Amino acid sequence: xxxxxxxxxxxxxxxxxxxxxxxxxxxxxxxxxxxxxxxxxxxxxxxxxxxxxxxxxxxxxxxxxxxxxxxxxxxxxxxxxxxxxxxxxxxxxxxxxx
Length: 98
Hints:
The protein has two helices and three strands. The chain has helices at residues 2-24, 63-77; strands at residues 28-40, 48-60, 89-97. It is elongated, with a radius of gyration of 14 Å. The model has no long low-confidence stretch (mean pLDDT 97). The protein has a three-stranded mixed β-sheet with strand order 1-2-3, covered by helices on one side. 39% of the residues lie in helices and 36% in strands. By secondary structure, the chain is of the alpha+beta class. Strand 2, helix 2 (63-77) and strand 3 (89-97) form a beta-alpha-beta unit.
């Protein structure tokens, strides 16, 4: 659906942001994966009310670097996220694997 495409666009955009920021910070990123789960309003219009993004980062990357990259994407770079309703809840989690 169109709404699912919007969620996928946000997850993809933030994934690219996180990877770019981590690599520009001179960390050795081997791979990464991003998963989105979301909840929608029951009645029309059925917009997103909550989105959870989980980032899995593989490589020699510090926890601080991932936290910073996610925060920069969320606060500054992700235009899709900034197109959502202001009352949409966005939860981000991550793990770093060597």
